[in-house]
Amino acid sequence: MRCLGIATLALLAGLVTGVSRSAAADPFWGADPVWSLLHEPAVVQELALTPTQREQFRGLLDELDAKFFPLRNKPTDEAANAAAEILADATSRLEALLSEPQFRRLTELQTRQQGTTALLQAGMMKRMNYKPQQKERLEQVISETLAATRDLEKRVGNGEPREPLEREYAELKRDELRKVADVLTSAQRSIWKKTLGRDFDLTTLGRPAFNAPELVESGDWLNSAPLTIKALAGKVVVVHFYAFGCSNCINNYPVYLDWQERFRDKDVVILGIHTPETTAEQESAAVKAKADRAGFQFPVLIDSTKANWNAWGNSMWPSVYLVDKRGYLRHFWPGELKWQGATGDQWMRERIEELLAEPAAARSND
Q: What is the pLDDT along the chain (366 residues), one digit of tens a residue?
């Protein structure tokens, strides 16, 4: 590989989709980056939307979020096909909503967010006019990186500490950039630079806000009358899915109890959603007895039909979600908060405190 200059790497840095990624609403790297991008406050600011456009933009995303969330725990092919339909719908409606310069800029930002895979899209390949060996090498590099990324996804799913995996992912993408830059000619880099448009600071990303799924009546409530996300506006809501027979869930209990006391007089609502994993966990009386024994004083929704599990597209016991005062999902932690030295308890507590400090503003994307 030849030595690559700083300018070349800076140009191709627009391809990185995760180097500056924070642990936001959905840390699984398999999520569609374009969909996440539409929910970024920095993107709304970059597009310079008018007040009317902002309202329409957010309303569109709120509507489509309700369709997108249930896909999170569907089989890969089914989820991908449905997500593609939602994204196509969003693109068509956004093209009508935005001005031509705004839509062009959104397309540039989407290309940056798609990363290296954009280099193999039909339109881009036509413009680049790759030689056969170039195309083959790009496919190899991108395929190898995707395979390594899937391995990291599995490790996240197995509960490994997230911070080291984020660092591994960052280095993986940097290595991919070096290899890609080695493949492209100077003319092809120029085409790519034009496609990316003017510079955009990717470090401003990582703060997406997704319209949180509404709670569904799916069983009895403990310690509370039935609640809704809408009715909890103005409060930070900590939603955690669990099952009382799940050892990983039980290992999270001390953290929930700490938050229960720490935020008792704050605008924080801790909300457990008990979704049964086994037949023994389906009896409401058993759920209540276990919750009482654990010391849960916060509301618990017994999700006996798994309606909430599916509405949120949840796929793991335990999982913890943070919803801001406006009703938007801002952060998500899958698995044990302290698995093998992870500091998810501290990280999520800090995020709760940050959300508490935010004003109870009207629902918007900024």
A: 333 332 333 334 333 333 333 334 454 444 567 888 899 999 999 999 999 999 999 999 999 999 999 998 888 888 888 988 999 999 999 999 999 999 999 999 988 888 888 999 999 999 999 999 999 999 999 999 999 988 987 887 677 887 888 889 889 989 998 999 999 999 999 998 899 899 898 778 888 899 999 999 999 999 999 999 999 999 999 999 999 999 999 999 999 999 999 999 999 999 999 999 999 999 999 999 999 999 999 999 999 999 999 999 999 999 999 999 999 999 999 899 998 888 899 999 999 999 999 997 655 445
User: Which tokens hold the place of 133?
Assistant: 């060996």
Peptide bond into 132 cis (omega under 30): no
Residue 33, Cα to own-chain centre: how many angstroms? 9
The pTM assigned to this predicted structure is 0.80
Helices first, then strands: H and E counts in the chain: 14, 7
Please give the structure tokens belonging to residue 64.
Answer: 């489509």
End-to-end CA distance of the chain, in Å?
43
CA distance 119 to 135: 9
Topology, domain 212-357: Glutaredoxin (3.40.30)
Instruction: Find, among 136, 102, 105, the residue nearest to 119 by Cα.
Output: 136
Residue ranges covered by each domain of the chain: 31-204, 212-357
